[in-house]
Amino acid sequence: xxxxxxxxxxxxxxxxxxxxxxxxxxxxxxxxxxxxxxxxxxxxxxxxxxxxxxxxxxxxxxxxxxxxxxxxxxxxxxxxxxxxxxxxxxxxxxxxxxxxxxxxxxxxxxxxxxxxxxxxxxxxxxxxxxxxxxxxxxxxxxxxxxxxxxxxxxxxxxxxxxxxxxxxxxxxxxxxxxxxxxxxxxxxxxxxxxxxxxxxxxxxxxxxxxxxxxxxxxxxxxxxxxxxxxxxxxxxxxxxxxxxxxxxxxxxxxxxxxxxxxxxxxxxxxxxxxxxxxxxxxxxxxxxxxxxxxxxxxxxxxxxxxxxxxxxxxxxxxxxxxxxxxxxxxxxxxxxxxxxxxxxxxxxxxxxxxxxxxxxxxxxxxxxxxxxxxxxxxxxxxxxxxxxxxxxxxxxxxxxxxxxxxxxxxxxxxxxxxxxxxxxxxxxxxxxxxxxxxxxxxxxxxxxxxxxxxxxxxxxxxxxxxxxxxxxxxxxxxxxxxxxxxxxxxxxxxxxxxxxxxxxxxxxxxxxxxxxxxxxxxxxxxxxxxxxxxxxxxxxxxxxxxxxxxxxxxxxxxxxxxxxxxxxxxxxxxxxxxxxxxxxxxxxxxxxxxxxxxxxxxxxxxxxxxxxxxxxxxxxxxxxxxxxxxxxxxxxxxxxxxxxxxxxxxxxxxxxxxxxxxxxxxxxxxxxxxxxxxxxxxxxxxxxxxxxxxxxxxxxxxxxxxxxxxxxxxxxxxxxxxxxxxxxxxxxxxxxxxxxxxxxxxxxxxxxxxxxxxxxxxxxxxxxxxxxxxxxxxxxxxxxxxxxxxxxxxxxxxxxxxxxxxxxxxxxxxxxxxxxxxxxxxxxxxxxxxxxxxxxxxxxxxxxxxxxxxxxxxxxxxxxxxxxxxxxxxxxxxxxxxxxxxxxxxxxxxxxxxxxxxxxxxxxxxxxxxxxxxxxxxxxxxxxxxxxxxxxxxxxxxxxxxxxxxxxxx
Length: 954
What we know:
- The protein is an alpha/beta fold.
- 47% of the residues lie in helices and 13% in strands.
- The chain is built from 38 helices and 23 strands.
- The longest helix has 33 residues, at 536-568.
- The termini are far apart.
- The relative contact order is 0.07.
């Protein structure tokens, strides 16, 4: 086959909207996968001013384009450049670049390959698919980022690199993707057809090697968990439990002890760590519940893992460890648990087995996957998911969707069709040779394998969400356990609220209805099976199902339209908001005249859904009566049909409760509408329990024999009363292990006395001045924490020009993922990072990575948020009893971003003058460790920072 010729394109524009903004630069590279053939680059006069932000990003100024050709003169040249020899156009986000050209009237009439989509298929799980990040990851030169010619050159090289990776996929996989996409509208169909043909022609001509960035393909040995050597499912008898020796625990952490020998020069004697470990051991020995705060630097992970492991191994038992963040899970699995296992081996104890378990929906079932891909002609979105799964499946060890990049809601909805399912999956059905054998792929339900490993594990690591899901199902998700450690306890209430929140997302409902409408995948599959089986009773009912689904979709569209109009009429719902807004469905909202219209439309939808559910249930009963569940070929469709029936039935019940019932029904239920910035017409209806303490107390505290609740920020002042009340932890012992860090020596706490209150007109400009002063004094290495994206944007726009002239990069939350921004911050010689809520915790920037931390405002919850307002109503003095304690815990988390190691030194600047002007401000100051405190005008900040760091070197 002759070498294909491609053109890689990139545009720079005045904004993101192809219908309103203009092109200011075009770059193009004509190439084959072996060499560059020709280049094209030109500036374009947009006939309008270039926004300052675009100039900051691209360096293109108004004077640069003043004498450049206009777009109508450039387009013919570009059309001629993409001549008849060019087989396909390549871009990094074709929707953007080709969208602008299409809006200008230029269509290339040839395949368009998106390197974002291709990279997501071939490089799953990357933190970012930004062109610069991918080039850095793949060692592709990108010398002139955000200029069209440089980006087009990099895009061409990226495509060639990805093309080589395509050729390294197993030929059977390439053939399957190519065959599945024949005659489809999928943009990458011709590329996979080409590569499959090329791979087939070259098969056997040269040795094929697995990609170096991926592990070898796994080998699975499946067996039900009953064969596990551990007797972990027996009832535990505390009277016969083997106690953990406190003396042994102390010895392990002592100087010249096992931990010292394991770590060598990295060992630091930590009295607090040993004290905490002995308290955890005592709680397990006595069957107590313990709430223990362990300050930063304690080493709390090892302090609870070691006694937990000793207990589990000694008693042939298991301990569940629940965390909130992925970062902590990774730390436990990659660092702390291996250390714990090594310590037990040093003591001559049996091997420690540990496992990570996630929710079932996170794991692929290959049987369901193969049945899905062979059941119908796949749409372009489905073909993207097919390619992502098939390119990943030969190499995954876990089958965990966290390793994939499912970039859109539609892709995530498809995943639900192929992930493990409680009603459809079992060892007998899923873990045996089947469709995958001829492809050289595993036939496995990865959840069942993860669950098997968990059944045999001493330590099971889960997240809060799975722990709470197990609680909600009365223990039907996790293996049986009686001993539990909950880390990051300050997030448990929020996690419980999220877990118990019911959300009605209309796109998902539409997708469900379309499955059983005329031409719907599920309806056609059941119709085909019923025809094969000559099941006339089922065939007779299917037209009624399709008609009912069609009618229900019509009523749904009318209901959603009315709901969107109702939401938009409220002043608190801003059309220009860049974040999801909530509108409480309280008595005041329901008393408005237009709400009656919402109720009428919702009642019509409920009636239509009831008719559909009845029709679905009739068919489901016929399928059960005909024993379809016993038939291998029909089992999955029968399960899908029953699941859909139950889901829609639950939807009817919830709509009736949340919309039609007076004041929303259940008094403990808080309901609201959500308006997202992306889908303003698809209003989500959501509801969550106002309190979760009774559920946690009953489901965890009363059920388990011993629980250790821990974290670095659990107290308000000197007591745990707030968290105990929020989580129902009154029947627990409490303890505190102070941080070993010398905050007085290492932290300067600076209070600028002339700082106006946040509602003052001068406040924002002084925040900007403070951030700039700190960034200059610290030569970057500055983290500023905010409570709103709007203030981040305003601050970034104000300080960026001056700081960038000094060589200090300004990184802001919202212009990249958290992980990407942290990588860029660490890599930059001089940078300031502006972050909102997710940067207040879980960010580890030790040493000189952060020298100054600024906190712009106290992190109070939004009073108008429906959940906050409902919970505040439970208190006589809601501000001091609820709002302040909640904000103090967040404030302590933010403060903790500065000092991460014993030798760290830095400055914290508090820019919210309410801390020293309001009576409640002292509560925030009292919550901090003792620091060196300085009260002085903002104009003295630079000198104070310089003096503070000079003292460190004296």
